[in-house]
Recover the amino acids of this structure.
């Protein structure tokens, strides 16, 4: 691919070059049971642009510094807490609850000697924004950079947590509907905030204006917002101009999850969009590929999202909204769409499913759960 400069930047945002703008000016409170570990972490954070790091050695001092920041600090932006200062899982959850009661807007990254699913669950229950291994400094810096832009989920008594933001990228109108229409409907129903980004008007397959209207209606049926760009159908590139166009929507929607075409695809536009999206979304923690009708046998799905009858009906209705294409495309045949979903259902616990090939899932528990049927 030609956008070498994009590829060179660290995927996890851990290089000083990358993280500095993100962390620049941040004021951070850090607790660790060991002074040497604390000062190594503080030094690495400062190297990455954090303006002030105040370290403490106990949970009590952590809470106290939360209540009364030193005179040079107006307020904390982020806190890092060593779970070894707490007790068992319930203590961990309770301690985080205490922190957030006192500092509702200050996200906590938890460091842990040996993060386990059980530990991560306890941290999630306590609304920690992340859990990283205690001596993984690059991991800590990446987590802190991400936390800078997160607000911890509100407690059950407050307003609801920020909905999950999902961005689904396709080269042409109807690509997203065919590959992930059921998933979009399912997640929209669950309250996710979903944006479909279509990079061309599909002029090669009909009147671009009509296809634009159809795409809008289809997005509505699935419960998503539509952003439509105007790249040339058939000759979409994976170079920096495409990357920048995708980055625009990424910056605007701040996705937690991105779905896109797979690289194992015979259509050059689909492959280009896959590659450009990988670059544009290099800091998005979760990315997976849906199946296009032009996917090759090298497409290897490893997650299967179970769909209900109504998810499948919404998918079919969204595809029908692309009326200009009906009849002229073999892959829009309803019988084929239905039986494909039924076939993938075999790998889920639901009657129907859509497959995903997970490229990245940087969540302690694994975000793309096997089945939601
Ligand atoms: Zn397409």
């Amino acid at each position: 691919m030609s956008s070498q400069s994009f590829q060179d930047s660290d995927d996890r945002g851990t290089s000083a070059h990358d993280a500095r703008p993100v962390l620049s000016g941040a004021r951070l409170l850090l607790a660790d049971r060991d002074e040497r570990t604390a000062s190594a972490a503080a030094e690495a954070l400062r190297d990455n642009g954090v303006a002030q790091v105040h370290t403490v050695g106990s949970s009590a001092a952590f809470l106290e510094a939360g209540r009364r920041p030193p005179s040079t600090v107006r307020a904390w932006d982020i806190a890092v807490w060593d779970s070894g200062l707490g007790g068992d899982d319930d203590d961990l959850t309770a301690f985080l609850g205490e922190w957030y009661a006192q500092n509702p807007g200050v996200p906590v990254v938890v460091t842990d000697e040996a993060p386990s699913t059980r530990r991560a669950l306890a941290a999630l229950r306590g609304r920690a924004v992340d859990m990283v291994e205690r001596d993984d400094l690059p991991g800590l810096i990446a987590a802190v950079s991400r936390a800078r832009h997160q607000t911890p989920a509100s407690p059950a008594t407050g307003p609801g947590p920020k909905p999950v933001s999902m961005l689904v990228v396709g080269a042409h109108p109807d690509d997203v509907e065919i590959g992930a229409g059921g998933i979009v409907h399912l997640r929209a129903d669950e309250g996710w905030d979903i944006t479909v980004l279509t990079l061309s008007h599909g002029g090669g397959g009909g009147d671009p204006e009509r296809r634009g209207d159809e795409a809008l209606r289809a997005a509505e049926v699935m419960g998503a917002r539509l952003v439509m760009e105007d790249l040339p159908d058939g000759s979409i590139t994976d170079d920096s101009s495409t990357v920048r166009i995708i980055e625009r929507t990424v910056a605007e929607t701040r996705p937690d999850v991105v779905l896109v075409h797979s690289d194992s695809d015979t259509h050059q536009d689909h492959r280009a969009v896959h590659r450009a999206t990988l670059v544009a979304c290099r800091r998005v923690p979760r990315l997976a590929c849906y199946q296009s009708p032009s996917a090759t046998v090298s497409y290897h799905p490893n997650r299967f999202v179970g769909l209900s009858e109504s998810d499948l009906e919404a998918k079919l209705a969204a595809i029908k909204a692309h009326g200009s294409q009906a009849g002229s495309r073999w892959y829009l045949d309803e019988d084929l769409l239905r039986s494909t979903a039924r076939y993938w259902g075999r790998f889920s616990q639901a009657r129907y499913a859509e497959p995903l090939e997970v490229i990245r899932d940087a969540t302690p528990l694994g975000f793309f759960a096997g089945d939601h049927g």
User: Anything to note?
Assistant: The domain at 13-147 is CATH 3.40.50.2300 (Rossmann fold). Confidence is low (pLDDT under 50) at residues 1-20, 154-159. The first strand starts at residue 27 and ends at 31. The first helix runs from residue 4 to 8.
